[in-house]
Design a protein that fits this description.
globular; alpha/beta; seven-stranded mixed beta sheet
Length: 394
């Protein structure tokens, strides 16, 4: 069955956006200089060196931290280490009030893309590992397909939406070697009447178009491409190892050409860096040109390990913004309400200008059907403390 109706005719080509002049700042950032190309192309693509694993002796660790400490190293390349993490389930229960779903899937812990603003850095702290190793020590959840098969057969998740990629990217480089995301999608494709969404920064999602088409024919499926800017230099500074923006827009186009519901999430919108009127206009226009069905954006949110990491990053790369960020985020973890309302209105106006929708509503999954009923998940069998507790980028 069809997942979502096609909301509008899509243009046939994705136009490369011309270089744009230097942007003016919002009134709340009167002295902020827009970032140009100050990062070194070589250094921008290299992850930080992997520090020692763990912050406590193994004998003092419990739960997910003990599992992480005992996880064997499966591979090491590009300056990144990969560990096989034994878990009891693939589906994670999400208790955040900021999102409209209760079940999430994150095939990996840690993310090699190394986005400096990533709120999920705190999830490494659950494993007693420093948050700055988030992009250099990646934990691959073992037996992802087998566990997903059991999880999907559990009655307590029937009729619920399943969001894939809420904390870490399901199509980060590790997916090429380990294939955990594809293994999960293969199990989802066997069922009918599900409600599933995928959020990623990677054009690697198009590798699985065959499975995505199968899923969308039998269940409700939507794919969100997270794109913060059209400017490659800014993207490389903020998201050192994520695919270029034009590649992500190309993925939107390919998904739409194959009848898969897809849209763009401008998340996060980074104050003083990606929030300019021309910046967001270019982003919304590129989304429209790529055939995106929706366009949404939220202002940067920082807590825990992410706060310290990002403030250090701002101090190095955007020193003129340092004092403002320390004032805003050091106290509240977010921007003032007046600024957030201004950005919300700006995004709404851009949707109207380019004929884009807000995010599609979560589809119900009332007709859930499963070809198999085995490996029942016992009450309390969650692999870790809630890795989506602070999810705000949905």
């Amino acid at each position: 069955m069809a997942t979502f109706p096609i909301l509008r005719d899509a243009p046939q080509t994705l136009r490369r956006l011309p270089a744009r002049p230097k942007q003016t700042s919002l009134t709340l950032f009167p002295t902020a200089a827009r970032h140009g190309t100050c990062e070194s192309p070589c250094e921008a693509s290299a992850p930080t060196p992997a520090p020692r694993r763990g912050t406590k002796p193994a004998t003092e660790l419990v739960g997910i931290a003990r599992l992480a400490a005992s996880s064997p190293c499966a591979d090491a390349r590009r300056g990144t280490e990969y560990f096989l993490l034994p878990v009891k389930s693939i589906l994670n229960h999400c208790d955040s009030k900021n999102v409209p779903f209760r079940w999430t899937v994150n095939p990996y812990r840690g993310c090699e893309f190394g986005c400096h603003y990533c709120y999920a850095r705190y999830t490494h702290e659950f494993m007693e590992i420093d948050g700055d190793s988030f992009e250099s020590q990646i934990y691959v959840k073992k037996d992802a397909g087998k566990l997903a098969d059991g999880d999907l057969s559990n009655e307590k998740i029937w009729g619920e939406h399943i969001a894939i990629g809420t904390a870490t990217d399901p199509y980060q480089p590790a997916e090429k070697e380990f294939g955990a995301t594809r293994a999960i999608l293969e199990k989802i494709a066997l069922r009918e009447g599900l409600s599933v969404s995928i959020t990623t920064k990677s054009n690697r999602v198009v590798r699985d178009i065959d499975l995505l088409k199968q899923i969308s024919e039998r269940s409700s499926l939507s794919v969100n491409l997270s794109i913060t800017t059209t400017r490659t230099s800014i993207a490389r500074a903020l998201e050192p190892r994520a695919p270029r923006p034009d590649l992500r827009f190309g993925a939107v186009r390919e998904l739409r050409d194959n009848g898969i519901a897809a849209g763009v999430l401008a998340m996060p919108i980074v104050p003083g860096i990606t929030d300019g009127e021309d910046d967001l206009d270019a982003l919304a226009k590129a989304a429209r040109d790529a055939g995106a069905q929706w366009f949404a954006g939220n202002v940067l949110y920082l807590r825990s390990a992410s706060l310290k990491h990002f403030l250090d990053f701002i101090g190095r790369e955007f020193p003129k913004l340092g004092r403002q960020y320390a004032d805003w985020y050091g106290r509240y973890g977010t921007a003032p309400e007046s600024y957030r309302k201004e950005i919300t209105e700006r995004v709404r106006n851009l949707r109207e200008k380019y004929g884009l929708n807000a995010r599609l509503p979560i589809a119900s999954a009332k007709s859930w059907k499963s070809p198999q009923m085995k490996l029942q998940l016992n009450e309390g069998d969650s692999d870790a403390p809630n890795e989506n507790r602070y999810t705000t980028n949905w």
